[in-house]
């Protein structure tokens, strides 16, 4: 029965990993894979995480299921992190948390909830967006549409985005990146978020806010501006949060689907439906990552240590952005690539063409996605001179 099954191309980023491993160039640079890296090129385990895991190992008494919504203690710390401790949304019991296998799992829960509870509604994603958005939503049977986000000059196209949002059919779902837009790094200003709020309210759209990189842009609270603005001023919203990145626990798959409803009674109805969606997907989420986050955020000392480490990672990335542009100044390319310093998060839409990306890989051993998206965490003060020289060469 399997004879008709055809081979399909592998994931582009996974292919980059294999090609990078085989490359013998001693100066090779990996800017493809979307994980944080330190100055040595490693993805370290945070000190706060190590300490939390040691405590968990010592005190753990069971490996039983944690329920379809996950551990209540995980929700207790994630909701205030997303909305703020004094959030009116939380005080009114308008939000609930469902622990999920990573932010990806939260997106799939959201997709299945939309497909079953809001049948016939389309979903709109930015162009470009994280490629897996396409797969997740179409796999759930939702009709996918795009709105503009970046113009041909590699700048945020807010005018195009605004015009497109105003034309979306009433009741459709619009996917918004809360911060550190993946793959571009272009984020909305406070004024632009206010305009989005007004359009979403006027068009009666349902916002689905992908919040995968809280703390990697400007700060934990600063990065939550758009999320909090919409949740506090709209009756309904969906938020997919991830702790995989800001706690550095990628392999633990630690995410959260957050539903915002008009009132607590409506939330109880929604929560019952989300439990069924989770049950049909994976029954119970993995427990360890959520337990790490809960252990850290329930302890003032560990919370302070984690915040310190997260600040170090964020500051390193933002410094590397500026230093990258500075390294291009001798080649007269600093203005052309100034956008890299303006963007936020781990990713940058550099503006490099697919042909230039190919040349960087083939001639210099520099690996990134052909869209020109680079993982800024792959920069280092050691490789920046080489990167600048190579980019100048392919700009000839």
UniProtKB/TrEMBL annotation:
<protein>
    <submittedName>
        <fullName>Aromatic amino acid aminotransferase</fullName>
    </submittedName>
</protein>
<dbReference type="GO" id="GO:0033585">
    <property type="term" value="P:L-phenylalanine biosynthetic process from chorismate via phenylpyruvate"/>
</dbReference>
<dbReference type="InterPro" id="IPR015421">
    <property type="entry name" value="PyrdxlP-dep_Trfase_major"/>
</dbReference>
<dbReference type="GO" id="GO:0042802">
    <property type="term" value="F:identical protein binding"/>
</dbReference>
<keyword id="KW-0032">Aminotransferase</keyword>
<comment type="subunit">
    <text>Homodimer.</text>
</comment>
<dbReference type="InterPro" id="IPR004839">
    <property type="entry name" value="Aminotransferase_I/II_large"/>
</dbReference>
<comment type="similarity">
    <text>Belongs to the class-I pyridoxal-phosphate-dependent aminotransferase family.</text>
</comment>
<dbReference type="GO" id="GO:0030170">
    <property type="term" value="F:pyridoxal phosphate binding"/>
</dbReference>
<dbReference type="InterPro" id="IPR015422">
    <property type="entry name" value="PyrdxlP-dep_Trfase_small"/>
</dbReference>
<feature type="domain" description="Aminotransferase class I/classII large">
    <location>
        <begin position="27"/>
        <end position="391"/>
    </location>
</feature>
<dbReference type="InterPro" id="IPR000796">
    <property type="entry name" value="Asp_trans"/>
</dbReference>
<dbReference type="GO" id="GO:0004069">
    <property type="term" value="F:L-aspartate:2-oxoglutarate aminotransferase activity"/>
</dbReference>
<dbReference type="GO" id="GO:0004838">
    <property type="term" value="F:L-tyrosine-2-oxoglutarate transaminase activity"/>
</dbReference>
<dbReference type="GO" id="GO:0005829">
    <property type="term" value="C:cytosol"/>
</dbReference>
<dbReference type="InterPro" id="IPR015424">
    <property type="entry name" value="PyrdxlP-dep_Trfase"/>
</dbReference>
<dbReference type="Pfam" id="PF00155">
    <property type="entry name" value="Aminotran_1_2"/>
</dbReference>
<keyword id="KW-0808">Transferase</keyword>
<keyword id="KW-0663">Pyridoxal phosphate</keyword>
């Amino acid at each position: 029965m399997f004879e008709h099954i055809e081979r399909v191309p592998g994931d582009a980023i996974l292919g980059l990993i294999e090609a990078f491993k085989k490359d013998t160039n001693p100066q090779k640079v990996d800017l493809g894979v979307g994980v944080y890296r330190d100055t040595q090129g490693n993805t370290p385990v945070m000190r706060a995480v190590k300490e939390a895991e040691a405590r968990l190992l010592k005190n753990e008494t069971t490996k039983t299921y944690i329920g379809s919504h996950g551990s209540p203690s995980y929700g207790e710390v994630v909701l205030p992190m997303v909305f703020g401790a004094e959030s009116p949304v939380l005080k009114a019991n308008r939000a609930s948390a469902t622990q999920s296998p990573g932010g990806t799992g939260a997106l799939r829960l959201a997709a299945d909830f939309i497909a079953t509870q809001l049948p016939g509604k389309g979903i709109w994603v930015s162009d470009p967006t994280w490629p897996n958005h396409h797969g997740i939503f179409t796999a759930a049977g939702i009709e996918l549409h795009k709105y503009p986000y970046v113009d041909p000059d590699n700048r945020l196209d807010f005018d195009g985005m605004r015009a497109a949002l105003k034309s979306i059919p009433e009741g459709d779902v619009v996917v918004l990146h809360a911060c550190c837009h993946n793959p571009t790094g272009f984020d909305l200003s406070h004024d632009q978020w206010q305009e989005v709020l007004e359009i979403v309210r006027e068009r009666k759209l349902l916002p689905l806010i992908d919040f995968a990189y809280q703390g990697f842009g400007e700060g934990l609270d600063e990065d939550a501006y758009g999320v909090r603005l919409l949740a506090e001023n709209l009756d309904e919203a969906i938020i997919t949060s991830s702790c995989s990145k800001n706690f550095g626990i990628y392999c633990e798959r630690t995410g959260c689907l957050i539903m915002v409803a008009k009132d607590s009674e409506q939330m109880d109805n929604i929560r019952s439906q989300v439990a069924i969606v989770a049950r049909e997907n994976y029954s119970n989420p993995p427990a360890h990552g959520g337990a790490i986050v809960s252990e850290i955020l329930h302890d003032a000392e560990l919370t302070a240590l984690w915040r310190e480490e997260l600040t170090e990672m964020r500051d390193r990335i933002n410094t590397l952005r500026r230093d990258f542009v500075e390294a291009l100044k001798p080649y007269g390319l600093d203005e052309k690539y100034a956008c890299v310093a303006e963007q936020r998060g781990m990713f940058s839409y550099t503006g490099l063409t697919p042909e230039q990306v190919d040349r960087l890989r083939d001639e210099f051993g520099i690996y990134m996605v052909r869209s020109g998206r680079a993982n800024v965490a792959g920069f280092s003060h050691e490789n920046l001179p080489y990167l600048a020289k190579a980019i100048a060469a392919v700009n000839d």
